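Q: Can I see a sequence and its folded structure?
A: Here is a first one.
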Amino acid sequence: MSGNIDVTVENQLVRFVAPEPIDGNAVVEQLDGQRAGKMVIKALQRPRATLVIDPEGRITVHGTHRIEAARDAAKELLLRLGMADTGLKTELGPIIASFHFNTPMKVESIVGQLGAGEGHYDERLDCGIVSDKRHDLVLHIWGNGRCIVTEGRHPKMVAMAAVYWQSKFKELGIASF
């Protein structure tokens, strides 16, 4: 049953902490960063990533799906600021992943079958949303079987959730696998 579900990591949220906090003002002045409230945003072309510097001087990298690419982006920022890239600590955040159930889904039925606490239908997005406490993630499921997972911690956990929900949806008659 699990052979037909391929999980793709779309984005890995990674935060880096340098030995010395990053000065957001220096990023704005020297590198044309953009201030957004207390945060500073800097888009890089190579490597392609968006960096957010928080008030504590930490770097959060968006737009990558590999940790190595995120680290390269953080190092690039440090080097452009004339700072050493040694001693950079990595903190992993949630991933955004996707997969396809390869069958139409009755997403409007999710709330009725699972109960309001676990699943609901989002009219604005036209998808069913499942808060999966078992795997500690959230699934957004569209009628064509496409699924986007947020708050995932590892691709293997997303794959386990996909197999579990495939079986559960078949059992409940939400999909015919």
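Q: Show me another, different protein.
A: A second, unrelated one:
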Amino acid sequence: MGKNSKISMFDVCNYTIFALFTLACFFPFYYLFINTISNNDLSSRGLVMYFPKGFHLTNYIQVFKIPGLADATIVSIGRTVIGTVLTVAASGFLGYLFSKPTMWGRKFWYRFLIATMYFNAGLIPWFLIMLKLGMVNNFLAYIVPGIVSPFFIILVKTFIESTPISLQESAQIDGAGHMTIFWKIVMPLITPVLATIAIFSAIGQWNSIQDTVFLITDSKLFTLQFILYRYFQTATSLASLLQAGGGSVNLATIQTATSIRTTVSMVVVIPILLVYPFFQRYYVKGMMIGAVKG
């Protein structure tokens, strides 16, 4: 009876701690959301904390009226999907190659790969290289630079080395080549770590804005994040001017710096939040097994 009581008490404490931790992770998103649909004047004064006050959807309506938003959304989705797929494929195959002792120049190329994680030429050389490669005002500027990621490749390599080598050896005895072994033997085994890489890559692609700022001047290639960033800059200035000028304005729905910031944040975050649950079950397994060789 005493033992069961201890176990029961442990379960209660365990569930309580995780419930509080979950609440702490969820509350920031909830706080952003209720401030986007509440009275903007109250929100800007920090009076909206736990429940929405003065419900309205004006902030979202204004955001969705931004010129070029639809095209920018398509560009962001395109770069995220294509970039993620190519990054996952390259990371998987290169990680497999680096796990093979018979790979030509394996030690040199692996050390060269690791060295790129520690040395960076800087912004100006990066821009000059991209300019010479014809990546200015080119959709490929969003895709090509991120295909090969040293961290992801190392993650996959370590994961593969933790799997039974006998599976690959048996396939080689049956006459299978490297491509057959990779696609039919290795790929099903490394699904968890590939899903983890897909999450990281998708978030990086979706939130990226620096490449658009420095390489893109064609409005047809602007990303959603860049459009929202420009909107945030201009709308914040306009909101400040309206409030400073006074006059007959509806403080409940007139946009403020707080309402613009929270609404833009929600528009950017929601797509990732919708995608993440589909990969979450692979996430922990991929990170734990890929990070430490078993």
